[in-house]
Specification:
3-oxoacyl-ACP reductase; globular; about 40% helix; EC 1.1.1.100; oxidoreductase; 12 strands; Rossmann fold; 3-oxoacyl-[acyl-carrier-protein] reductase (NADPH) activity; Sc_DH/Rdtase_CS; single chain
Length: about 450
């Protein structure tokens, strides 16, 4: 459904009226397109405190020229900030340039892990989280602010590529931890020399891929070179086949809640799997006092139990190859809660718990990373059916003052599925325009 308010605020009368009434003034977001893949303008590199990072080769790969006039992006290296005085340097570095940052621009602050043996450093580095999230809520004009914690600049290459590009249009106020080698396992040679198709030679399975966010994820992974298997329930087989046919992939009609779903997927993919996207999900909303056990059980089975069973089965069978990626779909409803969705919120919080607990073991034992995306208000047929005033509140209650698109979730998923994202593990990344509610 078209966001008429967003269009209205782009007109001269709309800007005047909303400004006079103090109403939200969303800016159209720059998203990726084949003809316009990069931000418009230079990259400004700043440093607060002493830094041991060699960022030059990492920033060069973004394709943005370095410059200090009207920047499209700002990277502030604050890994050397160790005390309150260092936070003053952060202010001094960004204060003069924020106003000049282009519309739909990017601010990425680089921080260090908290030092458990130095409470001054830990306090100063933790302060960067409050700083970046607060700046993200005030910066406006479709601009985003994120924090990346790292110790090795090279390991953050793919993450910075994403956050400094139009692909991250609806990701703001996030803290991404980059730790460990940034490798894709022994299969990396398949993508050498193919920067436009980083997933070439890889097979991706997308559950719930016949429509909505799942279809957008399948399309984006295929764009990046993956051979996509679109899985959905038998009732949606025609839609799944249509999506798969359009992408040169295959369709798999299967009830993901079946006890043997994992074994059947493994049998359908005898050559193995590189990317597993857990997107299938349902809602059965009621307040708890009116919610039947059946409604509760249906949501928990589809959204959480099937994810656990299928993941366990595919890891045990060795279907997921070394260098593989698992990306599950959580929700801000699971992080912040939502009235009438105790079942849905429980299931999506459970996905976050699964990711954080499984990630270190999956990487150590199988060479596979495990992460999640947590969408906020995304413009889909489901949200289009929400009553008008609730729908408008959902759209505006974030720092970008608008709903996201399925492609925003898909782009974030593709970043986590990238062979160069091996240093990102156990993360739950919100795709919510920095929701004003919740963590």
């Amino acid at each position: 459904m078209a966001d008429r308010y967003l269009r209205f605020t782009g007109t001269a009368p709309g800007r005047f009226l909303t400004r006079r009434l103090g109403l939200p003034q969303p800016a159209p977001l720059r998203r990726w397109s084949a003809g316009h893949p990069a931000l418009d303008g230079p990259l400004l590199h700043l440093t607060a405190g002493a830094s041991a990072l060699d960022l030059a080769p990492v920033l060069a790969r973004t394709g943005l020229p370095l410059g200090d006039r009207d920047p499209a992006a700002v990277v502030l290296d604050a890994t050397g900030v160790r005390d309150v005085d260092g936070l003053g340097v952060v202010h001094a570095a960004l204060h003069p340039v924020v106003r000049a940052l282009a519309a739909s621009g990017r601010v990425v602050v680089l921080g260090a892990p908290l030092d458990p043996d130095d409470h001054h450093q830990a306090a100063a580095q933790q302060a960067l989280e409050g700083f970046t999230r607060s700046l993200g809520k005030e910066i406006g004009r479709g601009r985003t602010v994120n924090l990346v914690r790292l110790t090795d600049a090279g390991a953050a290459g793919t993450t910075l590529d994403f956050l400094l590009s139009p692909r991250s249009a609806y990701v703001s106020g996030q803290v991404v931890h980059v730790a460990g080698p940034d490798t894709g396992g022994p299969r990396d040679e398949r993508t050498a020399g193919e920067p436009g198709q980083p997933l070439a030679g890889r097979t991706a399975l997308v559950t719930g891929g016949a429509r909505g966010i799942g279809a957008a994820v399948a399309e984006t992974l295929a764009r990046d070179g993956a051979e996509v298997v679109v899985l959905d329930v038998p009732a949606a087989e025609a839609d799944a086949r249509a999506v798969a046919g359009r992408l040169g992939g295959t369709a798999l009609a299967l009830d993901i809640t079946a006890a043997d779903a994992g074994e059947r997927i493994a049998a359908a993919l005898p050559d193995g799997l590189d990317i597993l996207i857990h997107n299938a999900g349902i809602t059965r909303d009621r307040r708890l006092v009116n919610m039947s056990a059946e409604r509760w059980g249906q949501v928990l089975d589809v959204n959480l139990a099937s994810v656990l069973r299928t993941t366990d089965a595919l890891l045990a069978a060795g279907t997921l190859r070394p260098g593989g990626r698992i990306v599950a779909t959580a929700s801000i409803a699971g992080l912040a809660g939502n009235a009438g969705q105790t079942n849905y919120g429980a299931s999506k919080a459970g996905v976050a718990g699964l990711v954080r607990a499984l990630a270190p073991h999956a990487r150590e034992r199988h060479g596979v990373t495990v992460n999640a995306v947590a969408p906020g208000f995304i413009e889909t047929k489901m949200t289009a059916a929400v009553p008008l005033f609730i729908r408008e509140a959902g759209r505006r209650m974030n720092s970008l003052a608008q709903g996201g698109l399925p492609v925003d979730v898909a782009e974030t998923t593709a970043w986590l599925a990238h062979p160069g994202s091996g240093a990102v593990n156990g993360q739950v990344v919100r795709v919510c325009g920095q929701s004003l509610l919740g963590a």
